[in-house]
Design brief:
heterodimer, A: 438 residues, Ammonium transporter fold, two-stranded antiparallel sheet, 2 strands, globular, B: 59 residues, mainly alpha, 92% helix
């Protein structure tokens, strides 16, 4: 396979055909967000279902607005001015220097405009991820405020480093580390950033009432609608193929013909990951578990984002298989050993799956010069050592000025009735807490 | 313990960035990057542990 990924000092020149194809792909990306929203809702309680879907809509809205107002100004695109620090005679770009409100940007079929459009959707996708970890107890106002922090600062900053010609993208040029940090579809920028935000939110909110006994044993709180979850997987699959393809065209200079390979790899990754999760749960619990299999499917998509554009189909099966096994193991460990109540599995699916995808590029991709594994490791280190403390700190500060967790009454009543005044299923009986520990 | 965990996370990242930016030899650079990541993992374990303790106290 010809290596084609390039560091991104400049945007690739786009023919009109490439630009139109890229635009069409980008317009399919919101399906990934719809899929995740359905999965989050299905894995949550029935009495918080409307709240969950409304939260996803609000997150998408807040993320798009904040990103256009300030986010893009920090992220920028490769080849345009940014603020850089000189270290050992080399420029390390750390934040973009674009004007607010997209001023001065030509909004047509140019690569810069396509990047803005893709990023408006991507940042919403990253914002939807933590919703599943805060399910049944995260206030709508706090969700919007937390999303504003994510879309206005955390996401654009890290995305500038990877996609905007920042220091991670320049590791190849500045330090001779392969082709710099490579992540075409956003395993790190979208998925891990969303995943570590989810981890921060679970820590700040604490577990749902009754989830853990006094001895620390977790109760199973089943999702209320497996059909929504599995439908969400299908929609996410379509959105992810578009996301990975558009990302590779814009950030890795992939030719339009590569879209076929990327779609094949994305599908193989999801398929092998979903099946691996089904087999592991079949072995462990004597039956395949629908929610964990769905999470396995999504973890495969997550891991595919970094690797789909630069691995062979056989390698993408390995990427997916490992992701499927990881997601089951990590979900169990988080709940049983670390008392982390993450109802939708955002941490195991998006944070762990995304980190694995980034490392898979180092292990399995053909990206040319040596040192690529070190560039990928530096990216992983940045996600753990910079993005996680940053997102935790911002959300912790937010919690000090605006309490993020709903009151005890709200939690008992359900988020739908307490915050919205009406439930999602008014004609049906909603089960109580009979399966929770008291 | 929570603060110490997060400080170790940031310290590990600082080691990684410093190694990549300042060390010329590939071997030393790789060694320090791995050391930085090990520091981060220790910090992550500490942060997880501190939240485990907080959860138990909450119950």
């Amino acid at each position: 396979m010809t290596p084609f990924v390039v560091p991104s000092p400049f945007l690739p020149p786009f023919s009109e055909v490439s630009a139109v194809l890229c635009l069409l792909l980008i317009l399919l990306v919101p399906f990934a967000g719809v899929g995740l929203a359905l999965i989050n809702t299905g894995l949550g309680r029935a009495r918080s279902a409307a709240h969950s879907m409304l939260s996803a809509l609000c997150v998408t809205a807040v993320a798009a607005l904040v990103y256009v107002v300030v986010g893009f100004a920090w992220q920028g695109v490769a080849g345009r001015p940014d603020h850089a620090v000189l270290i050992a005679g080399k420029a390390w770009g750390w934040i973009a220097a674009e004007p607010f409100f997209l001023r001065g940007l030509r909004l047509d079929l140019s690569p810069s405009a396509l990047i803005v459009l893709l990023q408006m959707f991507s940042v919403g996708l990253a914002g939807i991820i933590p919703l599943s970890s805060g399910a049944d107890r995260w206030r709508l106002g706090a969700i919007c405020a937390s999303t504003a922090l994510l879309a206005g600062f955390t996401y654009p900053l890290f995305a500038h480093w990877v996609w905007g010609g920042g220091w991670l993208a320049q590791l190849g040029v500045n330090c001779g580390l392969g082709r710099g940090f490579v992540d075409g579809g956003g395993s790190s920028t979208i998925q891990v950033v969303g995943g570590v935000t989810a981890l921060s939110i679970t820590w700040i909110l604490g577990p749902r009432r009754g989830k853990f006994s006094a001895e620390g044993m977790p109760a199973a709180v089943p999702g209320h609608n497996a059909v929504l979850v599995l439908l969400g997987c299908g929609l996410a699959w379509m959105g992810w193929m578009a996301l990975n393809s558009a990302g590779a065209m814009l950030f890795l200079s992939a030719e339009p013909g590569r879209v076929v390979l990327i779609a094949i790899n994305t599908t193989l990754c999801a398929a092998s990951s979903g099946l691996a999760a089904a087999v592991v749960t079949r072995i462990r619990f004597a039956r395949p578990d629908a929610s964990l299999t769905a999470n396995g499917w999504i973890a495969g998509l997550v891991a595919s984002s970094a690797a789909a554009a630069c691995v062979k189909p056989a390698a993408s099966m390995i990427v997916g298989g490992v992701a499927g096994i990881l997601v089951v193991w990590v979900s169990d460990s988080l709940e049983f050993q670390f008392a982390i109540d993450d109802p939708g599995g955002a941490v195991s699916v998006h944070a762990v799956g995304g980190l694995w995808g980034v490392l898979a590029v180092a292990l399995l991709a053909d990206v040319g010069p040596s040192g690529q594994w070190l560039a990928q490791l530096v990216g992983v280190a940045t996600l753990l050592g910079f993005v996680l403390p940053l997102t935790y700190g911002l959300n912790w500060l937010l919690d000090r000025v605006y309490r993020q967790r709903v009151s005890r009454d709200g939690e008992l009543q359900g988020m739908d009735l307490f915050e919205l005044g009406a439930g999602a299923y008014p004609e049906f009986d909603i089960h109580g807490d009979e399966f929770l520990q008291r | 313990m929570k603060l110490a965990g997060f400080l170790l996370l940031v310290a590990g990242w600082a080691i990684v960035v410093a190694a990549v930016a300042l060390l010329p030899s590939a071997g030393a650079r790789a060694g320090f990057v791995l050391a930085g990541i090990a520091t981060e993992l220790f910090g992550l374990a500490l942060a997880v542990r501190s939240h485990l303790v907080l959860s138990a106290e909450g119950e």
